[in-house]
Structures are given as C-alpha cells and as structure tokens.
Specification:
Length: 211
C-alpha cells in the first residue's frame, strides 16, 4: 500500500543506504556523532539550514525520488534514500535539540505480514535458517540425501542473503527427525520468528487503532 504522506524529521528511525555501515549504529544520532561531527559542530538554525540545503537529501530537493517505508510488524519509519544520509541525520540531530519541526513529504509504502499464510506454512513445515555458504550447503545436501529426508529451500531477502530458509515437511518422519536435530543444535527457527513478528504486528496495529 502506498500513499502521499508528511511526517516530521524526528520520526525517521533510519535509512536504506549510507556511506557508513548502518549496521554499526542503533540510532541516526550515533552515526552522525561518530562519522560526521563537523555537521553538528554548532546547534543553530544556520547549521540546520546548511544541512537541509544539501542536494542529496532528495526527499526535499528531488520530490518523487526517495520515499518512506514502514513495516507493520516493526512500527519504525525508514527513509529509502539514494544519498544524503549524514546530512539528514545531522538535520534531525540539530532540530531535536532546537525543538524545531522539519516536515518531510513523499510516498509512504506500508508492508504487512499475512498471519494466515504464516500459520498455514507453520502447519505444513518446520522452517529454519542456515548458512548459505557453498561448502556448508554441499555438506547439508549430502547429509539430507544420505538420510533420504525431504526438504525445500528458499533464498532469504536482503540483508540476509548470506543465509537460506530450509522447509521440512511435517508429514514426513525423516524430515521431522532432521527438525529435531536442528532444534537440538540451536539452529534459528524461522517459523517461530515469523509467528512472533505476526503477533508484534497485531500489537502495533491495535495500539494505532486505540491512538
């Protein structure tokens, strides 16, 4: 679902792209404090305007290019940007300390999970996430063939392309023996994870309705 939307810069949780490794930071403030101190060297309206004037903040200067995304199981707001992450983070940092509002407008894409589809998958399969390393995959495939167990696999979405999903049919005893072994080994249970996300999504949606 997409719609034209306006929010305040303070509502942004993070970005889709940056010259910094976004995985290293829990917040945009941490990123700009670590890698762009010069952009927040002065907490003033002048410095705020300097950062907002940066041409790579396309959500301001090139309408229709960048956009917003929200995942209903997560609740946080993301700017799907093609540049300007440090200047945007710096502007957010300064605006918060000045108590200024900075409206941003663009398309908002909202994504949600289908709880019924997840329940159906979990009813038919035990699902796990394992390494996508070729050597590991070859060994896993050989073991599954030797044991004569049935399994399916599926690529994982970004940023988890270094892993793959393994689906083990519940109606086959050999596959369930494999599932038990994976449980014992502490392999990530994808079915349980998706079920928890669907529960969180219901909670977020309910709170939004109440608000």
């Amino acid at each position: 679902m997409d719609t034209q939307w306006t929010c305040d810069i303070s509502e942004l949780h993070g970005f889709s792209a940056s010259k910094s490794d976004l995985r290293d930071f829990a917040t945009t403030d941490q990123m700009v404090e670590k890698n762009s101190r010069e952009m927040i060297s002065e907490i003033s309206l002048k410095k705020l305007d300097e950062n907002l004037a940066h041409r790579e903040i396309r959500i301001i200067h090139s309408p229709g290019s960048d956009y917003f995304t929200r995942y209903r199981w997560d609740g946080r707001l993301w700017l799907m940007n093609s540049g300007g992450s440090h200047h945007t983070a710096a502007a957010k940092y300064i605006a918060a300390r000045l108590g200024c509002q900075v409206p941003l407008s663009g398309k908002l894409y909202t994504y949600s999970l289908d709880p019924r589809a997840i329940a159906s998958l979990c009813n038919d399969y035990r699902m796990f996430v394992i390494s996508n390393d070729s050597e590991f995959q070859n060994a896993f495939s050989q073991a599954m063939r030797s044991f004569n167990a049935t399994w399916l696999w599926h690529s994982m979405p970004r940023p988890y392309t270094d892993a793959r999903a393994i689906l083990l049919p519940r109606n086959e005893s050999r596959s369930m023996h494999v599932a038990k072994a994976l449980d014992t080994a502490g392999i990530a249970d994808l079915g349980a994870h998706l079920t928890n996300l669907a529960t969180r999504q219901d909670s977020f949606v309910m709170r939004q309705r109440i608000a």
